[in-house]
Amino acid sequence: MRERLQNLDPLSVVLWLLRAAILGAVLWGTVATILNNPYSAENWLDFLVFGVAQGSLYALIALGYTLVYGVLFMINFAHGEFFMSGIFTATVFVAIPLSETAFWDSHPVLSLLVVALVAMATSVGIAVLTERVAYRPLRHAPRLVPLITAIGASFFWQYFFRGLYGSGITAFPPVEMLKGSLIVGGLEILWTQVVVIVASVLLLIGLYIFVMRTKTGKAMRAVAEDKQVAALMGIDVDRVIVITFATGAALAGAAGLLYALLFRQVHFFMGFFPGIKAFTAAVLGGIGSVPGAALGGLFLGMFESIGPSLFLEGLGIPAAYQLKDVIAFTMLVLVLIVRPQGILGERLAEKKA
Amino acid sequence: MKKISALIIVSILAVMLLTACGGPQFECEDAIGCVDIAPEDPVRIGWALVISGPNETLGVDSQRGVEIAAEDKGKVLDHAIELVGEDSLCSAEGGQTAVTKLTSDPSLIGIVGTNCSSAGEPASKIASDAGMVLISPSNTAPSLTNPDKTWNPGYLRSCHNDNIQGAAMANFAYNELGVRKAATIHDGSPYADQLQQVFADKFVELGGEITTQEAINTGDTDMRPVLTKIAVTGPELIYYPIFIAEGGHITVQAKEISGLEDTILSGADGMISPDFIAAAGDEANGMYISGPDLAFDNPLGQAFLQKHRTKYGEDPLSAFHAHAYDATMMLIAAIEKVAVQDEDGTLHIGRQALRDALYATKDHEGITGTLTCNQYGDCADPLITVNQIQEGEYVPVWTAD
Fold first, then answer.
1. Into how many domains does chain A fold?
2. Do both B302 and B340 map to the same domain?
3. Which pLDDT value is given to residue A288?
């Protein structure tokens, strides 16, 4: 015992104290809030639903990060821009012209499907182009090189679309059918949130089946395991990588439409914050893991929605919602301290790390 | 040897000849330097406004005010006017970059800008340190002209101080709407933070109750959690004097929160723009927005509107075009007052003299009224109007007295 204490270096003592302090503050705040509960059960459920809706968006975008990381071990920081490019293009060329006709209100489902298809197609196009021009030539370069290239690609696409569609806010036309809310057992859920949550779950299941049950999915998993051996087994590695990018981008395109339904504003910079948050979600869940990304997104969305009220209000911090990003990233740190590989992540083998 | 002495004689002669032609030499005795403008050179005036991003209409609107003023004036003491512009965005970094770039040009006399108070804070310091003057058409945060906070000696503004706007809105809410419980939201910017605080203080002073003061971040989109929190405190009115993007999100999402269906929504001049109507859609109808009174029934105002329509083919986009016009005219009037002109037309402008002349501005007849500057650069003749958004239009419903 004494030996262990002697071997303890000051840094780890400080770290342990820090962890204890964060945990203590979170627990104290939670207890104080619950004792002095100003919210009704419905309010808490509302917070939860808002968090799940926001979290499903993070999850859909996070999948793009995780898929690409699984195959290439690179962080594709341009992914937020794939998300933006699809819905921005679809809003300007499809949603706004359509909303000026009677078709938008008389056939809302069909209209939204067209918007979704255009958004996904554009996102996929941008992703495939970026992969071909910016990432493939650097396939065998040191790992830092594609990472920096991705940041460059992200800026390029942001300012490309700013030049194309302008720097102002474009309003996504409201959908008449989605006004109002669904009432389940006294709980009111907005129709837009129902659509966002259901669509996200369907897309997640679809992706899981695609990766686990199809031949292409199997090839993706093989390339993720070992590119050289996969190539020796007759798998076209380049093609699989393109498919991986395309799949992630298609999900980002769909997420773009869901974002537009929830928030009704699109602009050239809209991909930045969701991109950062989704990356955080992917790391939280365990980067490289598909269910992990989904789980990480949900956790992050809920922390952001409930956290300020639950953790901070009890501590007497005014205007707590300004600090929701702090909560999100503190949660990330807390989880990573306990499980450095993320919630569902595997410990990285030598060659992957 | 002969050659060299001939050269010396010629050069001495040349120097004598030149000094003789120049007449009495102007000597700059100004404490912080002078700008000299050669006979054929223009008088250069800078502007630093937000002309891109979500708040671009705010800056483009002011830019047009500056342009029309320059065109109206035509020439300053026989020198043409040249405008040099930079995008100051709506952030501290943007203001810093734009004004640093503008002040690096020593031939520039003064700057009209910035739009957002967040950009104004660093801009005021940089311009003042560089010996220039910065006249803002729309920085309304009280701290900018408070010598204990972020006031600097080269800074002035032609728009109202939010001590006036916040109090006017509190008055309107308490006395006209009969509201007794209100909540506020700000976005951490000096403008929104200080304005909502003035409103809250005045509202409490009148006898009302502030149920909660919340804050969000610029760039946030999901306002439902914070609105749910506010709904629990049961306000009759929410005051969020922020900007277009986040203000649009709050306006749309507030209608979806149970408990806030009948709550009155209100904001301030950062949200006067057709882009806000586009972002908030039908949900914006019924909302109250305070801002400068824009019913300028003086001949100058009418003529301005006419020129604006002819030149740009539309009505002004936002609330501060007239303030930008007045700011530019104030600057030009001060230049005319202090400039020393040589016989050949060269202008010499003392920078400290220009500052003093601007601060001494008294009874300047502008579009926005009669402008007189106080010792900390508040020059406005402020009149606040509350508009209600009806059918996507800003309709004035009440004017403070």
1. 1
2. yes
3. 85
The shortest CB-CB distance from A54 to any of B222, B244, B258 is to B222
Distance from CA of B174 to the nearest CA of A (A): 24
A268 within 8 A of A167, measured Cβ to Cβ: yes
CB B316 within 8 A of CB B383: no
Residues of A in contact with B228 (CB under 8 A): 43, 46-47, 50
Same domain, B172 and B255: yes
Q: Write out the two tokens for B317.
A: 């986009």
Q: Are B168 and B146 within 8 A, CB to CB?
A: no
Question: What is the dihedral sign for C-alpha A153, A156, A159, A163?
Answer: negative
- Closest to A293 measured CA to CA, from A48, A64, A51: A64
CB atoms within 10 A of CB B175: 11
Domain limits at A199?
A: 55-269
Cβ of B222 within 8 Å of Cβ of A50? The answer is yes
pLDDT tens string B316-344: 999 999 999 999 999 999 999 999 999 89
Quick check: B229 contacting A, CB < 8 Å? Answer: yes
CA distance A196 to A83: 15
Reply yes or no on whether the pLDDT at B354 is more than 90: yes
Structural tokens at position B93: 């970094």
> Is B252 in contact with B282 (CB distance < 8 Å)?
no
pLDDT above 90 (res B121): yes
- CA of B55: which chain A residue's CA is closest? A168
In three-state form (DSSP H/G/I as H, E/B as E, the rest C), the secondary structure along B237-263 is EEECCCCHHHHHHHHHHHCCCCCCCCC
Name the minimum distance, in Å, from the CA of A300 to any CA of chain B: 13
Contact A264 B252 (CB under 8 A): yes
Q: What is the mean pLDDT of chain A?
A: 90
Closest alpha carbon to B228 in B248, B258, B252: B258
Query: Which residues in chain B touch residue A304, judged by CB atoms under 8 angstroms apart?
Result: 222, 225
Same domain, B129 and B277: no
Asked if B261 is an interface residue toward chain A (Cβ–Cβ < 8 A), one would say no
What is this model's ipTM? 0.90
pLDDT at position A319? 84
**A131 domain-assigned:** yes
The per-residue DSSP string of B292-350 comes to E-----SHHHHHHHHHHHHHHSS---SS-HHHHHHHHHHHHHHHHHH-EE-TTS-EEEE
B155: nearest Cα among B141, B134, B126: B134
Q: Pick the residue from chain B with its C-alpha nearest to A310.
A: B229
Please check whether residues B226 and B354 belong to one and the same domain.
no
A51 with B225: Cβ contact below 8 A: yes
Do A322 and B245 lie within an 8 Å CB cutoff? no
Q: Which residues of A touch B226 (CB under 8 A)?
A: 308, 321
A39, A304, A308 ranked by CB distance to B232: nearest: A39
Dump pLDDT digits (tens) for A115-134: 999 999 999 999 999 999 99
Are A306 and B225 an interchain contact pair (Cβ–Cβ within 8 Å)? yes
Asked whether residue B317 falls in the same domain as residue B290, the answer is no
Comparing A74-83, B24-33, B389-398, which segment has the lowest mean pLDDT? Answer: B24-33
Q: Confirm or reject contact between B188 and chain A (CB < 8 A).
A: yes
Q: Which residues pair with B370 in a beta bridge?
A: B365
Domain encompassing residue B231: 163-294+385-399
Tally A–B CB contacts below 8 A: 98
Q: Which residue from B minimizes the CA distance to A265?
A: B279
Are residues B309 and B277 both part of a single domain? no
